[in-house]
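Following up on my earlier thread - several people asked me to post the actual chain instead of describing it. Fair enough. Here it is, all 643 residues.
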Amino acid sequence: MPGIPTHFRILELTLERLKSSNDPKLQAMHDLMAKKDNRAFAYLGAIGPTLTDFMAAAEENPYMEIWRIIFLFLSGDGQADPGFYPLRQRFTDYLEKASAAIAAQDLDALKDLDSETQYFKNDFGADLKKTLDPTKLEKIYQDVWGLIKKCKPIVMSTLLGPAPPAQKWRPREFIFWKKTGKFAQALVEVAEKSGHDQFRAYAYGYLTSYAGKVCGSPFINSIVWAPYRLHWWRHRWINNWVDTWVYGKYESGATMNKDTPSLPYAQWPKLCDADLHQNIEIPGEKMDPLALMIAIRDQTPLPSALDKQFLDLWFQAFNQVYGAMDIPSGFTAQALNDAYLVTWLVLWFQTSNEVLGCNPPPSQLVPPSDCNQPSWVDTSLPPGSGTGSPPPTPEPGAYTQTSTAKKVTGIILAILGGLAILGGAVAAGGAALAAGIWLATHAEEVDWNKLACDAFWWRWYIYDLMEPLIQGFAKSGLTYPNPYFLGDPLTEQTYDPAKGAKVVKSRSAVKEYPAIWSPLLIWDFTADPQYNPLVKIEKLKFQNNLVETKGYLHSAYPDFFIADQNNPLGNAGVRVGGAWPVRGNIAEPLQFGNAVDNAVDLLANLGVNLPDWNLDGDRGLAYFTWIFKSKPHASPIEIDPEP
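Reply from S.P.:
Thanks for posting it. Predicted structure:
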């Protein structure tokens, strides 16, 4: 299952193809989806069934519960802990205003900040200590890892008994495995009859997601060595690496010479400040991340964002396809609205600069002249390894000089001290802050060269403090890694372009596919099973058939399944069905062409009956939807067609 940024790119490339088409109908589809009032709905459609990640209450959905815990850390507990995000926002606002006042040498503007200055002197360090309390952070860590294990799909929840019936599955599993083509087709039919342009844009966008998942899930599976069902968190972790590669490649225009990019990975655009949440912001809706986090924290109803007509049309299509089935709980209009808001909030956290951001390395800056490296910074350490001792508390007079410098303020020290606090050096930052305020009040002359020098080295110090937090989220599979580490995503130190292939390049005809991890190594989702001596191989063979399933037929980078003309539509388009269980034959299934070709083909052929492909690419390449005939862990595995 490709990630949301990759699906956004498939939509954008599809729109380009529609716009340049000679077919007026396809051009009109482009104009409809690109229109300002409809654009967000096309992007929402491109997310496709992934939106159901956040349907069902947190207590019934471990993945949603993971994010609820993260949002609690960000928003605070509503009592003693003010939350990391409000503290960061307050400091950022203070920093911007103080910086502008300093640039203008406007002492009156600085005086207007006195109340905030007093807060950062007296209370900010204590507030951040509550947010960064080690005991609390350790509990968050333990809770999240425990929930990752619980994210195992319900279909695999029993070891000895039969697979649970579909109505007990989570919404995400249900909609990826049940009547997938019929639902995509129903969305289009309902949209066309309704004349509701925003819903039409959504339905067209959903078709690009359907094409992207059918073409992309087998590609991702071949990297993981297994479908989502067997290693759910390694899938999310791999998807983040693939999304990072896709975004950087298409934004930069880089090409690949074997495993070496034409532009070094370190220079590729990053997802950490791409603001992808803005793509799905509905015109006229004011999105407030803190208010949403507080509502999730307090378990109060989220605001209505998707209008009633949109929700009614969505469920009209849903009931048309699934109405006669026993469906899981969680498929409600309120749940769909909430899933949209949480998806927006997660994208905001992952791709905006408002919380973690990109933390650019200070090595990109040039130190001021006559600026020696202080003892409390060590640039020889790898990024994120921390520094030595905290910086010393500045002494009164340390930044004064007897030259003809103008009367200025030491407020810069307050800013630097605040940054130190933000990075975690609460005691040292508070001391520096207090000294800065003292100097702002008492200094007659200030040595600007010394301030500029210290500002440079503070940047190094803060970078080293923040980088472990940023890398920790990326390692966990919750945020996107810096493309620099495509060079070596496992050690994150040595720049070696060949290493990026391990996490973003598909594998052709992998032997003993699919593989699952030993329960003892369930946390080791970064490990390649090829080199894991304790790996357990799940053969997944048909009864009385010894031909193994295949994950993917080509070894290539992600642009191959996205839009590469070396992977054309040919006779293997997504809308072409076949005899169950696999199109072609089990020994040599037909591989789909690229996602953009397929998306354009689907849009050019509205009304055609679409095959029910398993959108997880489960069992192997080109499989239709299916159910377990017996136990999920039986050997050999027996399956039946989806009823």
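Residues 1 and 92 are 37 Å apart (CA to CA). That should answer part of your original question.
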